[in-house]
Amino acid sequence: MTKVPDILWLEEIRKEDIASVGGKGASLGEMASIGLPIPHAFVVTSQAFRRFLTESGLENSIFDEIGAVNVEDSAALREVSEKVKRSVMNAAMPQSIRDEITTAYKRFTGVGIYVAVRSSATAEDLPDASFAGQQETFLNVSGIENVLHAVQECWASLYNGRAIYYRAKQGFDHHSVNIAVVVQQLITSEKSGVMFTSHPVTGESFTIIEASWGLGEAVVSGSVSPDNYVWNNESEMLVGRRITKKLIEIVRDGVNGTKMLDVSLERQEQEVLSEDEISRLATYGHVTEEHYGVPQDMEWSIVGDEFYVLQSRPITTIKVSDEKRGLQEMEVKEEKVIVQGIGASPGLVSGPVVRVHDVTEIDKVKVGDIMVTTMTNPDMVPAMRKTAGIVTDEGGITCHAAIVSRELGTPAVVGTRNGTEILTEGQIITIDGEKGLVYDGVIERVLKQETSGPQSVLAKADIITATAVKVNVSMPEAAMRAASTGADGVGLLRIEHLIIGLNKTPGWYIQNHKEDEFVEELMGGIKTVLDAFPGKPVWVRTLDAPTDEFRNMQGGHDEPHEHNPMLGWRGIRRDLETPDQFGLQIETFKRLWALGYDNLGIMFPMVSHPDQFIRAKQLFTEAGVDVNAVDLGIMVEIPASALMIQEFIDAGIAFASFGTNDLIQYTIAVDRNNEHVTSMYWPKHPAVLKLIKDTIAVCRENNVEVSICGQAGSDPDMVKWLVETGIMSVSANIDAVEKIRHAVARTEQRIILDSARRMY
Ligand code: PEP
Ligand code: MG
After folding, report:
1. Rounded to two decimals, what is the model's pTM?
2. 665 CB within 6 A, ligand 1
3. 457: pLDDT confidence band, cut at 50, 70 and 90?
């Protein structure tokens, strides 16, 4: 076997060299080999790192310690991580490696002595490990001593707490995970950004480019709302362009640093890219996607006339669908409505009917079918992931089928009453999930929409609103889709979908002494959402599953039979009576806080008296949580809690959020899931509005954040009223975030204009 050198230049590297140069290094080498303009770089190989471990003697000491630590014990994990990192930093780098890095670094002179030093772990950046990118990057490093120091910091970062935790969970062996370090000429970008070579959510053939001034960190970190361009890969034309107000840019600063500058007034609303530049970037994207055979997420920059590609990796969020199979060949029919219901999840789609009578039949469902059933329940979620559309007899806008299909982005019509009677197995139908209509056959609008280009790609946040616009999430798999809306955080993460997905009740885990397994599952799901919203608030709601939804799960036979589960043993009242089950949730949150997720807030559902909040808080305290350091809030879903909001504030809630789905049904006594009373379910009933208005007023007086996460928060008209009434944040469904952001912005501007007019 030939000996791998300590240093490899990009020109010497191919994608197969991942073991020596890590994911990042291999990808840069491969990109350079296909002619993409990559800034000069060399890689300090993983063999060099290995030699450092051996020659310094660290190899004999650190792995035992890492292997022995219980990664669930966050204090112990932190301690071992700090100790090992210190050992790595304090050990001397072998002289020959120092010399090679020094010689290589000197070769940069003439093209710029500033470099970026980035770690390139051998398990990181692999398609199924893309969350692992926890290691270090140092920008703007200059001077050989600083470069050597940064290389060593990158080596040490292989042992930060999250990396150790991640590897343990993924089953990677600490001994065999190496780290390489990329040292790359730093480009003093005048313009930079990111590019998706296919639509990051739907996979459609559009290149999406985001661009802003200065270094790319401004776009990548989300500190600026970038210009957004949509390029149709097939027609090779610019089909969408949104120019934003770019208030800041990140530039190099001194040695080793970067700083944020205000963008000059005349450049703030100036278009960053010309059409020629967009076309050239799209070409680079196309070449890269062709080469790798999968859509890419790339970083690029431009200095004068020079283009650079800085990074490329596979997009991991695309949901590959073949829902459109064969539709083009089918006969197009006149629009004839055959079934009507409630539009529960927007979208227009055609496909063959598959009738599902109960959970035993879900395997019949194939990708692209339209599932027709009496009512979905949590057991049917695997089939709901495959269907192109859903039609149910029962349910309203906030039923299970509606919530899940909105989250999956699957069109749905619910509450048709007779869908299962009228629609026959195999019949081709079209459903309109916006209007709540089902048509016979394929209608022309479906085929048209498939070639008209996505509007949704323009949905990223580029409007700043004073009222935060957040998003609701129920299934961790929807986290990236939810984050791609640019929402200001998650106003409601329902964990019962996650728990029901485990198919075992929390009680089952306790009876079988598998508490830790439960905590890990729950933690993993919540963490996926937290990772998708770094630095933004994520309010996780404690368990709120009605007993009937638990009954089909393992351990569910113990669930009490209730005459009316909606008014039954659920939400906080159940948790307070089963402190062992509540304790598992608290343990999960505790571990997440200990991992540094201080953006995690907790929200209690179905609270009707401040004593329940006080008791819940006490259980957190008894479990060792510093309740003054975290945000604990309540859902306002029961009129009692709206009427007693002052007492809740006195009890110390950090926030209150209207769960209007329940607040409406409990205020006017209309079952939210009963299609026979759907027409009576009245979100703007004066009594509901009065409860909301009075609650907002009290919260504002006391400076407590007041929000909404019920379905009414996805209705632009209702949101207009809420903003006028003083709501501080709104949390909408994924599909509604953009229109709600517009409604909020328009209402806020109207309020400002009206008050300005009153002043003059
Ligand atoms: C609500 O009641 O408005 C709410 C958001 O909770 P759920 O729909 O889960 O009952
Ligand atoms: Mg509710």
Report:
1. 0.58
2. no
3. very low
